[in-house]
Amino acid sequence: MTAARPRIGTVVVGHSRDAASRASAAAFVTAWSAAEERTVLATVDWPETAASWLRPAKRFAAWEPDAWVVAAAPLGWAQMSRRLRQDTAWDPARTYGFATLGNSRLPALTGAAALQGMRGVTPTGGVWTIDRGWLVRHLPPPASDAP
Question: How many domains is the chain built from?
């Protein structure tokens, strides 16, 4: 028997500055904040390229949320997550990404262990996880025939 995971109530949302990532993050913040007992502690953005990732990494990890949520392009997130692992107490196993991060190139961009345990959703309703340097996709459950 596995232990139940604690319920997620507080999140920090991070996103790239491209239009799609900003829109995804904003939609998530609106939906999450509308539910009872759910709080967005902070929203942090970062550029796709930067001379230093330290400032956005420290802002992203400054809080102690139940989870982090990320909407970003793979390259920018790879650079941000490397800085997070190097200079903060951020935990990829408590991090959830949007479908754009379910890209098999992501673990190669960050290094095999940098994103261990991170997970997210696919555009078709499945789930992806990063395990030992591999992005593993899990198929969505079959559609129910029940009315």
Answer: 1
Q: Is the pLDDT of residue 28 over 70?
A: yes
The range of the structural domain enclosing residue 43 comes to: 10-136
Q: Is residue 31 part of a domain?
A: yes
Look at residue 38 and tell me if it is in a domain: yes
Say which residue the tokens 């991070």 belong to. 14
pTM for this entry: 0.89
* Mean pLDDT of the region 29-49: 94
Distance CA 37, CA 54 (A): 31
| CATH number of residue 47's parent domain | 3.40.50.2300
Q: What is the mean pLDDT of residues 107-119?
A: 92
pLDDT of res. 140: 77
